[in-house]
Amino acid sequence: MNSAVNTLLKEQCVEWQQCGENYAALETVEVRNTQIEGYSFKVQFNPKRIQSSAAKVDPKSIKERKCFLCEANRPAVQRGIPFAAKSGNAYTILVNPFPIFKKHLTIPAVDHIDQRIDGKIADMLELAGCLTDYLIFYNGPKCGASAPDHFHFQAGNKGFLPIEMDIEAILSSQAKQVAPDVYVLNNAAAHTIVCKSASINTIICWFNQFYSKFRQITNSEEEPMLNLLAWVNNGHYHLVVYPRKTHRPSQFFAEGDANILISPASIDLGGIFITPLEKDFSKLTETDIKDILQQITVTPDVFNKLIQ
Ligand SMILES: [Zn+2]
User: Fold this and answer.
1) Residue 136: CATH number of its domain
2) By the 8 A CB rule, do 261 and 53 touch?
């Protein structure tokens, strides 16, 4: 699967001009490295991501636009690889034409169905087991997904997102084990839970339990707010969960100098803050990042209840 996807990526960059240009532009984007409470973060100035960061995801705007993940509305030049999950759910692996990673995929369900992870965590882990050069990510409908009406995962190459690169060191030094296979990141700027196991079923069971408790604790009618990352390394599945409380931080809505156009999702929480505007790239400080992470993730009170 890795090699078929890598071939698709190379071919799409040649046959699809906009896609090729955007991947070429990624080679020269500015990135700076920083540390937040002992965790590595990068800030990436990525102007091509403006549409995603500023996307209108309210029900009215969504209803008025054509869904860009439905096959009928996708550009004719965009080709995909079918992925049939064991659950019976069908997906298409596509090249994401607005990359953050050097290899960046969008993996929509074939059917136009709402963005809800319930019943699809097994698909996510199965994808991680097939696409072993990649990490798979999921953004909840109110947590950064720019198509909350069409179910999709994304994937990015390994070796770029700090949480994935640093996970072994984090689990052995900064994390606290709270149950078999389950860790909480200590002093993390963003409340983070990691489930790691050689058994896919262990992670599925744990997540389903977590999901229903989180829903109860937050009285969520639909999906409790969350972002997820999953990958497989040395035969072990890793699932990273970021429980959320807010979609966008106050800085997103602020006027004048206080404004920062940032709409955090899995990638930002995993350690790459994306700023589509140069003014934000130059001014975003460690204090801003920490403040944004605290605003968007659950309160210590909710997090402690979850851990219990
Ligand atoms: Zn659709």
Assistant:
1) 3.30.428.70
2) yes
